[in-house]
Amino acid sequence: MAETKTTKNVKVKNAKTIAFPVKESNAEPTLQEKKKVLFAASEARPFIATGGLADVIGSLPQALAKDANYDIRVVLPLYSDIKSELRRKMNFLGNIYVPLGWRNQYCGIFTCVERGVTYYFIDNEYYFKRTGCYGYYDDGERFAFFSRSVMEILPFIGYYPDLLHCHDWQTALASIYLKTVYAQNPEYQRIRALFTIHNIEYQGKYSLDLLGELFGLPTDCLGLVEYDGCINLMKGAIECSERFSTVSPTYAKEIQSAEYAHGLQEIICKNAGKLTGILNGIDVASYDPATDPALFANFDAENLENKKICKAELQKMLGLPVKEVPVIAMISRLVSHKGLELVKTVAEDILHEDIQFVLLGTGDFAYEEYFKDLGKRYEGKASVNIAFNGDLSRKIYSGADIFLMPSLSEPCGLSQMIASRYATVPVVRKTGGLFDSIKPYGAGGNGFTFASCNAYDMLYVIHEAIDTYKNTTAWQGLMKKAATTDFSWSHSADEYKALYSDILTM
Ligand code: GLC
Questions:
Q1: Quick one: which H or E segment has residue 359?
Q2: Nearest ligand 1 atom, CA 407
Q3: Residues 164/194, Cβ–Cβ less than 8 Å
Q4: For residue 149, which of 278, 342, 479, 480 sits 20 to 30 Å off, Cα-Cα?
């Protein structure tokens, strides 16, 4: 039964009054209704992926949808890079026109159901018929169009969510539009907003004069989105959303300091009462060493014997001698915050050990060149693969022994969890989600950790890992510990549900 609501007016500095819905005391408890949650995001597996965000948007909705009390849907841009076999699954629902500043843009709406979750795709060839997802001069306009479309399609699809769950700067404007442009519309007034930060480095910063022209926001919204002399969409979403979150409890603490907040610490601290950190999970059905078809041989935590085949075949495939030395792997974007300076500082020391080193990733030109050169100099010992390759990544996760992830900052990180599930023992820096997911072997944990951003501290724990590897019984126990750590969504999905309930009863 629909509950009766009135609205409470909330004044935000320099902005127009925002109407937040408030439950009346005699209203039906929201918890008894099927809760409608609409995810708005810029990428999701299996449709389109450039990073960890796609893994989360491709698995958290499914985990939530297992609960019959939830009606979870997801809206994404229809990029031309979405493969034709996935496009063929989609049905065209129709089209509308979306206002954006002085423009009125075509918006086709496609839909399909993927593992129990309904997806909607926003089609506009001018904005999305391009290679990849990001990196265009008009990204601000592209994602403003997308965010505005998220608002505009609701009457067309006949679905007004109870909660709009937006992710990262690309969809920040959807929550800003919800609480400003649409604030007086009764159908939208009851929608609450949650904004999740996956990467605080990209905030969506634009010059102030684009407020009306590009984003179609009225002048009295300036105070909401203005920060440090420019429009900051992430700041606007934090201010507008009833709550905001990030992808690990430790990162939620870290982004309250200048060291991690990329300039946004003042806003994060001011809104800290609205902030929650929930650790991501991984799709344990997809990342299952017992069934993963990409692996040379399947295995599970109870019987790790076939992992040896995975290792030997990986060595053969990468042109490394097939021998019983620890294979240290990195699968990473090659950018500085992944801790690559630490790796560079001690790479030669590591490679002088009786080990093999495998790297897979793409990124900054200088790092790509550095690692290519390292691969050449240590041919037969180091295998450097400058590529983004899902199949090879799974072969490495399963065939390596040690997984190195020394990030300077890491909101959550998924690779350490995938590696663990494939019985490859992580060596991580204690930051963000790495700290929350990997605990030191010495204290009965599932990996090796170091605290400071110091290459020699990292080298010390790498040696510890190599020494432990040489003790077969200890290593078997550690592999099993890693492979049996629960990285499924079950616990975190419950935390999201608790957060949703909190917001919906506000
Ligand atoms: C971003 C973060 C990563 C996180 C992922 C999913 O890619 O850098 O740490 O795991 O988002 O939330």
A1: strand 356-360
A2: 9
A3: yes
A4: 278
Say if ligand 1 is within 6 A of residue 198 CB. yes
* Overall CATH class of domain 307-486: alpha beta
pLDDT, position 8? 39
| Best probe residue, ligand 1, of 165, 171, 195, 247 (max atoms within 8 Å of C-beta) | 247
Question: 428 with 454: CB under 8 angstroms?
Answer: no
Residues of the chain with CATH 3.40.50.2000: 30-281+490-504, 307-486
Minimum-distance ligand 1 atom for the alpha carbon of 251: 9
pLDDT of residue 506: 86
CATH topology for 30-281+490-504 is Rossmann fold (3.40.50)
85: DSSP letter:
H
Say how many Å lie between the CA of residue 246 and the centre of ligand 1.
Answer: 9
Please report the pLDDT score of residue 172 as a whole number: 98
CA distance 64 to 72: 7
Q: How far is the CA of 396 from the centre of ligand 1 (A)?
A: 20
Which segments of the chain have a pLDDT < 50? 1-32
Backbone angles phi, psi at 206, to 5 degrees: -140, 165
Q: Please name which of 149, 102, 155 lies closest in space to residue 124, comparing C-alpha atoms.
A: 149
**Structure token digits, residue 5:** 């609501």
For the chain, what is the total number of helices (H) and then of strands (E)? 22, 20
